[in-house]
Design goal:
Layout lengths: L17 H19 L9 H28 L8 H18 L11 H13 L4 H26 L9 H4 L5 H15 L3 H23 L7
Length: 219
């Protein structure tokens, strides 16, 4: 499968609505990532889920400080719910109980994600929060995808509880609507929209790199 183009080479998005701009800017990356996910295959196994969780944990930890920056300036929305990382940790601990064998170690924040995030922020020194909104767009959007995967995998991978995929459960849609309402309030001027699109493309590229080349996947 061909790799994604460097984030800096992707075309800018000229769209008045931030949500539509973000969707357009990340459409190709989103489709490519969905196509390459082992966990979305019909024969996905518990081992695939464990690898998926490990990659997400490294990626999300690297983005966490940037989400916390939004948390400090945007009341009314929890960008860093503690149960998210806790669910990833619990899912990794659960693996030997449901499939046998030693547990997979908890990863460090992903070096690739840290590097790409720093580059995106450096490219928009006057729009740091907008870049972080782009990171958050991918993180929050992944929760919607997690609901789809949970419905596909819950029975097949039982008794593993798939805590991270379950996420907020029935509240996921309402959380997404609130996030989008806040996004539209905070990301409106064209420079902010473009910075957010760069952040979102960066988050997708970083996540894809974790699935292609897992870091620290050791027993």
């Amino acid at each position: 499968m061909p790799s994604s183009p460097p984030v800096s080479e992707l075309p800018p998005t000229a769209c008045a609505d931030p949500l539509q701009a973000l969707r357009t800017a990340t459409a190709a990356q989103h489709a490519q990532l969905d196509a390459q996910l082992a966990i979305s295959r019909p024969d996905a196994s518990l081992a695939d889920y464990v690898a998926h969780v490990h990659a997400l944990a490294a990626w999300l930890q690297a983005l966490w400080p940037h989400l916390q920056m939004l948390q400090a300036t945007t009341p009314g929305f929890d960008f860093t719910p503690p149960q998210r990382l806790a669910a990833l940790q619990a899912d990794l601990r659960e693996q030997p109980l449901t499939a046998g064998g030693p547990a997979i170690s908890w990863p460090l924040p992903g070096d690739g994600t840290l590097r790409l995030a720093a580059q995106a922020l450096a490219a928009h020194p006057g729009q740091l929060h907008a870049v972080c909104w782009g990171f958050a767009y991918v993180v929050e959007g992944s929760q919607l995808g997690g609901q789809v995967l949970y419905r596909q995998l819950a029975q097949r991978l039982a008794p593993h509880p798939l805590r991270y995929l379950h996420g907020d459960g029935a509240s996921t849609g309402a959380r997404w609507k609130l996030f989008i309402a806040l996004l539209r309030q905070h990301i409106a001027p064209p420079p902010a929209v473009e910075a957010a699109c760069h952040g979102a493309r960066t988050a997708f590229a970083a996540l894809q790199s974790h699935f292609l080349e897992p870091e620290g996947m050791q027993e």
